[in-house]
Design goal:
5 helices, Rossmann fold
Length: 148
């Protein structure tokens, strides 16, 4: 039996999280979502620590990662992912309100797969989330599993 494809959303803004989940619900993808509310929780999720210690061994098929996070910022999370065997190939999409050139440059330097600036307008944001969810959860073929 093939394991369930999971999406990890790392987001501290309640409104952005709700909108993302509502949009993914339209495509029956919201049941396959795990949420981390800060960078530390994101790393706990990946390394199966604390409240995520019992999660299954499968990596998410994509990580939607905010940059401006409490505890550990998103770029540090991305750096850890890209420097850890077994996690390097997980697609990471930065989903942020930051239009700062330094954030954009650093994200791509660290190996992000895509950098999406959150539109302020509701329908544009919803359309972006729909496209991301459909592509990464349905269309894209994830890399082969290399770590349990």
């Amino acid at each position: 039996m093939e394991s369930l494809k999971r999406i990890l959303i790392v987001e501290d803004n309640e409104n952005d999280l709700e909108l993302t989940l509502d949009t993914l619900t339209e495509y029956n993808l919201a049941n396959n979502v795990d949420v981390a509310r800060d960078g530390e929780e994101a790393l706990d999720y990946l390394f199966k620590k604390n409240k995520f210690s019992a999660r299954d061994g499968n990596n998410p098929i994509v990580i939607l990662l905010d940059i401006k996070l409490p505890k550990i910022n998103g770029l540090e999370v991305l750096k850890t992912i890209r420097n850890t065997d077994g996690y390097k190939k997980i697609p990471v999409v930065i989903l942020t309100s930051s239009r700062e050139e330094k954030d954009l440059n650093e994200g791509y330097t660290l190996g992000v797969n895509a950098y999406v600036v959150k539109p302020v307008e509701f329908n544009s944001f919803a359309d972006a989330i729909k496209s991301l969810g459909i592509f990464w959860a349905i269309v894209n073929e994830p890399p082969p599993k290399t770590i349990s």
